[in-house]
Amino acid sequence: MIKRFRFGNPIETDTVINKCDISLETIDKFTVTNEEKLVFTYQMDPQDVVYGLGENINGINKRNFTYISRCMDGSRHTEDRNSLYAAHNFMLIKGKETFGVFFDVAGIISFDVGETDIDKLIVTSDDQDLDVYIIDGTSMQDIVTQFRAMIGRSYIPPKWAFGYHQSRWFYKTEDDFREIAKKYQEAKIPLDAIYMDIDYMDEYSSFTINRKNLPNFEGLVSEMKEQGIHLVPIIDAGIKVKPGYNIYEEGVKGNHFCKDANGNDFKCGVWPGYCHLVDVLNDEHRKWFGDQYKFLLDKGIDGIWNDMNEPSIFYTDERLNEAYEMVDRLRGSELDLQTYFGMRKKFSTLSSNPKDYQLFYHDINGKKIRHDKVHNLYGYNLSRAAGEAFERMSPDKRILFFSRSSMIGMHRYSGIWTGDNHAWWSHLKLSIHQMPNINMCGFLYTGSDIGGFGSDTNEELMTRWVEFGIFTPLMRNHSQSRRAQELYVFNHTETFKNLVELRYALIPYLYSEFVKAALNNDSYFKPLSFVYEDDARTYNIEDQLMVGESIMIAPVYEQNCRGRYVYLPEDMKMIKYRSLDDYEEVEMSKGDHYINVVLNELIFFIRKNHVVPMAKPALTTKDMDFDNLYLLSYVKDPIEYVLYDDDGYTTDMEREEHFHKITVNNNECHCTSKKVTLL
Ligand code: GLC
Question: pTM above 0.90?
Answer without folding.
Answer: yes
